[in-house]
């Protein structure tokens, strides 16, 4: 397995939904060991987790590794990186300074790891789809809808209109009216949101080009979309995954906005100036 060492943690987390609850607990046992190193025997891991050695090997392969030794080596390399140590759990004893540092470090880890797994070819395809589209419809619920609104706002600044839908019925109505010249971008952290999946499937059947922004490359939304852009974030009991993943997804979309603008930089700069001047009168002096 030839992953960027910074991406190992992300690759493990992205494949966790493929595991059974028992298998996931085994992974948690392994990643939670502070004494885990290149010499840690398979037998010890199996005994600690209360499973057979064969199951540990099977889990390693489900996570994308060649076997336990490959998994062990990759995880040890990852744990030695500064990136792996950026994320820290919040404690009741933390000072205000501790809390600020931990929240910022969690976001920094999400950014570092997301950048390491970002598929540049998929990114280029997404930029082309959005640039060429006749209509651009964005779907998302809750926090994901806020990310959709942020990027729609950016696109409008350069003269590219996008419509955000955060209601299940409106998503379906939108999808029913789309065709091969249109683009849909869906935002779903889990990649399993039923309303988003239903609308995405309908848009795809009608020929629209579909882009998914999600935290899990193996999620159902990734199986439907033409292009998948993945963020990654390590969860914590208080912040959850969504908080850090939101920072990573916003950064992906910021880069995508710049890439789309670059495809017609003259028009983008002209429209940026027009929209900037349009709102200047609302600024208090």
UniProtKB/TrEMBL annotation:
Keywords: DNA-binding, Transcription, Transcription regulation. The keyword Transmembrane helix does not apply. The keyword Transcription applies. InterPro entries: Homeodomain-like_sf, HTH_RpiR, RpiR-like, RpiR-like_SIS, SIS_dom, SIS_dom_sf, WH-like_DNA-bd_sf. Residues 6-82 form the HTH rpiR-type domain. GO terms for biological process: carbohydrate derivative metabolic process. GO terms for molecular function: carbohydrate derivative binding; DNA binding; DNA-binding transcription factor activity. Residues 126-266 form the SIS domain. Signal peptide: none annotated. PANTHER family: GLUCOKINASE, HTH-TYPE TRANSCRIPTIONAL REGULATOR HEXR-RELATED. This is Sialic acid utilization regulator, RpiR family. It comes from Rubellimicrobium mesophilum DSM 19309.
């Amino acid at each position: 397995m030839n992953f960027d060492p910074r991406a190992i943690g992300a690759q493990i987390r992205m494949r966790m939904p493929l595991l059974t609850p028992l298998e996931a607990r085994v992974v948690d046992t392994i990643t939670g060991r502070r004494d885990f190193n290149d010499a840690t025997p398979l037998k010890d891991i199996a005994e600690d987790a209360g499973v057979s050695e064969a199951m540990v090997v099977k889990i390693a392969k489900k996570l994308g590794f060649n076997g336990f030794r490959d998994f062990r080596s990759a995880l040890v390399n990852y744990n030695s990186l500064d990136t792996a140590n950026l994320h820290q759990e919040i404690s009741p004893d933390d000072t205000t300074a501790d809390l600020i540092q931990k929240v910022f470090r969690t976001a920094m880890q999400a950014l570092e790891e997301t950048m390491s797994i970002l598929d540049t070819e998929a990114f280029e395809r997404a930029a082309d789809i959005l640039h060429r589209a006749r209509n651009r419809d964005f779907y998302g619920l809750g926090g994901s809808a806020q990310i959709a609104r942020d990027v729609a706002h950016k696109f409008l600044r350069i003269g590219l209109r996008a419509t955000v839908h955060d209601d299940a019925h409106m998503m379906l109505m939108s999808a029913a009216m789309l065709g091969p010249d249109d683009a849909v971008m869906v935002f779903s952290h889990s990649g399993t949101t039923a309303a988003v999946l239903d609308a995405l499937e309908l848009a795809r059947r009608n020929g629209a080009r579909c882009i998914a922004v999600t935290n899990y490359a193996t999620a159902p939304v990734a199986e439907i979309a033409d292009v998948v852009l993945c963020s990654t974030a390590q969860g914590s009991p208080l912040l959850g995954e969504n908080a850090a993943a939101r920072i990573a997804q916003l950064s992906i979309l910021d880069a995508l906005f710049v890439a789309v603008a670059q495809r017609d930089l003259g028009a983008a700069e002209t429209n940026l100036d027009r929209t900037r001047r349009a709102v200047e009168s609302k600024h208090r002096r």
